[in-house]
Amino acid sequence: QVTLKESGPVLVKPTETLTLTCTVSGFSLRNARMGVSWIRQPPGKALEWLAHIFSNDEKSYSTSLKSRLTISKDTSKSQVVLTMTNMDPVDTATYYCARIDKFGSKFDSWGQGTLVTVSS
Amino acid sequence: DIHMTQSPSSLSASVGDRVTITCRASQSISSYLNWYQQKPGKAPNLLIYAASTLQSGVPSRFSGSGSGTDFTLTISRLQPEDFATYYCQQSYSTPWTFGQGTRVEIK
């Protein structure tokens, strides 16, 4: 059974750096066909893709957020980490991690999401 | 970036109705188009990938079609559990992008 679980702070202050961890099970981050993406959703708004990483360390980032994002993985721990610098209240959102199946580049399994609020 | 536009933004329908949602890409994306269903407070769930392939476990009343820039998601006979928000997503090139969503409400 494939599972993904996000963890990290529920509240961050403006200008701080957010660090989120996605812990996966049921598949390996060494699997060449699979990767992990981060996707966010502000309250009442649409989904926004942020970044992805694959087993060969191939990475890609949202055009508008590229300068603030870093994605990495620890294969031995089955974890994918996303950092976002210089947080702002507009970054308040539920952050999801999702597995990517390269066959179709589809998000076929999702974590439950974690709500991050940016406020002083 | 490829921009995805869904229409309508919301619709009201009754149980048993046939519902169609459209998604348009700002450039050709071949058949690299996925559809997701999201219920309130839950993560999205993959329904259809590659424009028309039903994800395992998804009821056959859901279907997808299209290629190039224009795509549709059809629910043949709306069921109570289908009231949700639906998103399209292009997987043709990064940055991957989603449509703004279509909310399907009970009439």
Give a description of the structure.
The complex is a heterodimer of chains A (120) and B (107). Chain A is mainly β and 120 residues long. Chain A has no helices and 11 strands. Chain A has strands spanning 3-7, 11-12, 18-25, 34-41, 48-54, 59-61, 69-74, 79-84, 93-101, 106-110, 114-118. In chain A, strands 2, 4, 5, 6, 9, 10 and 11 form a 7-stranded mixed sheet that branches. A 4-stranded antiparallel sheet of chain A has the order 1-3-8-7, with no helix packed on it. The model of chain A has no long low-confidence stretch (mean pLDDT 96). The mean pLDDT of chain B is 97. In chain B, strands 2, 4, 5, 6, 9, 10 and 11 form a 7-stranded mixed sheet that branches. A 4-stranded antiparallel sheet of chain B has the order 1-3-8-7, with no helix packed on it. The N and C termini of chain B lie far apart (36 Å). Chain B has strands at 4-7, 10-13, 19-25, 33-38, 45-49, 53-54, 62-67, 70-75, 85-90, 97-98, 102-106. Chain B is 0% helix and 50% strand. With 107 residues, chain B is an all-beta fold. The relative contact order of chain B is 0.35. Chain B is globular and about 35 Å long. The interface between A and B is medium-sized, with 21 and 24 residues.
Output mean pLDDT of chain B.
97
Class by alpha and beta content of chain A: mainly beta
According to DSSP, the number of beta strands of chain B is 11
Overall geometry of chain A: globular
Radius of gyration of chain B: 13 Å
The unreliable regions of chain B are: none
Mind summarizing the main beta sheet of chain A?
7 strands, mixed
Short description:
The complex is a heterodimer of chains A (120) and B (107). Chain A has 120 residues and is mainly β.
Keywords for this entry:
heterodimer, A: 120 residues, mainly beta, four-stranded antiparallel beta sheet, 11 strands, globular, B: 107 residues, seven-stranded mixed beta sheet
Detail the topology: elements first, then pairings.
The complex is a heterodimer of chains A (120) and B (107).
Chain A: E1 3-7, E2 11-12, E3 18-25, E4 34-41, E5 48-54, E6 59-61, E7 69-74, E8 79-84, E9 93-101, E10 106-110, E11 114-118
Chain B: E1 4-7, E2 10-13, E3 19-25, E4 33-38, E5 45-49, E6 53-54, E7 62-67, E8 70-75, E9 85-90, E10 97-98, E11 102-106
Parallel strand pairs in B: 2-11
Antiparallel strand pairs in B: 1-3, 3-8, 4-5, 4-9, 5-6, 7-8, 9-10, 9-11
